[in-house]
Each structure stands twice: as C-alpha cells, then as structure tokens.
From TrEMBL:
Parts of the chain that traverse the membrane: 12-33, 45-64, 100-120, 140-160
Topological relation to the membrane, as annotated: Multi-pass membrane protein
Example GO BP: respiratory electron transport chain
Example of a GO cellular component annotation carried by this entry: plasma membrane
Subcellular location: Cell membrane
Protein name as it appears in the record: Cytochrome b561 bacterial/Ni-hydrogenase domain-containing protein
GO molecular function: electron transfer activity; heme binding
Length: 184
C-alpha cells in the first residue's frame, strides 16, 4: 500500500519565533496563575516575559520576512479595508499575519510590556503600596486576558475561514503555500 502524498507546505515561522511565542505563552500563564500566592515565581515569570518581548522586538526589526514588523503592521486604512472585507466575507488569505492579526501582535506585546513594567514599579520603594500602581497592574492584566481571548477567537475564525490550522502552523512553522488571490 502506498502512503498518501504529503500536502505541500512552505516555511513561514522560524524556530526562534515559534519558541519565543510559546515561551511567552508559558511566562504569561505562570505569571497569571502564580499571582500573589507565589510572588517570587510571579515576578520571575514577568521578567521572563519582558526579556522574551525584547528578543521578539529585535526579531521584529532584524528577523526574517514574516517576523518583521514592517511586513505585517499595516496602516489604519489597510486595517479598515481588511475588516470590511472580513465582514463582507471576501477577505484574502495572508501567508503571514493579516492586518488585524498584525495589530493584535502589537497590542499583545505592548500590553505585556506595560503589565511587566507596572509589576516591576510595584517592587520599587518609591511605588510600593501605591494603590494606583496596583490598580493599573491588575487592570492591564485583565486587559491582557481580554486581548488573549480576542487573539484566540481571531485565530479560530481565520483558521475556519481559510481552512488552515494556524495553531499547528505555530508549532510546525509551516503553512500551505501561497495560492492565487492570497495577499502578502
């Protein structure tokens, strides 16, 4: 019996990018679930998240094609156009991030940075015990949870719309090749 031919695929996400993505997922999860009960672990996870984002930002400027911010952070006009195409159910498939996904990356990274910085501020004598710092840290952590939920919904929706498992692609780094009508 002959094995079924493997579907063609193309490398999109580099190993360093996928490792950074999943390590950041783990760091945020550890920080969230450890909280005040395991404060030292919470702080270490927060610092790890900040270090991972610093590395991701370097990759965003110097990394490969689909890792670079300039490739996937689109103008507001392009994002509005793409959102209208999604609502009309005629959006193009992107090999990398689509315009909404690109801005979600920026929102997630920025929110994790501000959550991490406010957590660090709370550990300093000059900010220790200030209610507004704790409130800001907690509010931003909940904002991050909301963004993660939107991100997961967007991944599920886009996977369904384009019949492509984006979670598997973030593990393997591979997606089906560009097809006629796909966007860059």
């Amino acid at each position: 019996m002959r094995a079924a031919p493997e579907r063609a695929s193309t490398q999109v996400w580099a190993p360093w990018l996928r490792a950074t993505h999943w390590a950041l997922v783990a760091a945020v999860a550890v920080a969230w679930f450890s909280g005040e009960a395991l404060l030292q672990l919470h702080e270490l996870a927060g610092y790890a998240a900040l270090a991972l984002i610093a590395g991701r930002c370097i990759g965003g400027w110097l990394g490969g094609r689909h890792a670079r911010f300039r490739q996937f952070v689109r103008s507001p006009a392009q994002v509005r156009r793409y959102a209208a195409e999604v609502l009309a159910r005629r959006e193009k498939r992107y090999l990398g991030h689509n315009p909404l996904g690109g801005w979600m990356v920026v929102a997630l990274l920025a929110t994790v940075v501000v959550v991490g910085v406010t957590g660090w501020m709370y550990s300093l004598d000059m900010f220790w015990g200030l209610a507004w710092v704790e409130w800001l840290h907690r509010s931003l952590a909940w904002t991050l949870v909301a963004l993660i939920a939107l991100h997961l919904a967007g991944v599920a929706f886009t996977s369904w719309r384009h019949r492509e498992n984006l979670v598997a692609a973030m593990f393997s780094g591979r997606k089906r090749p560009r097809e006629p009508g796909d966007a860059d």
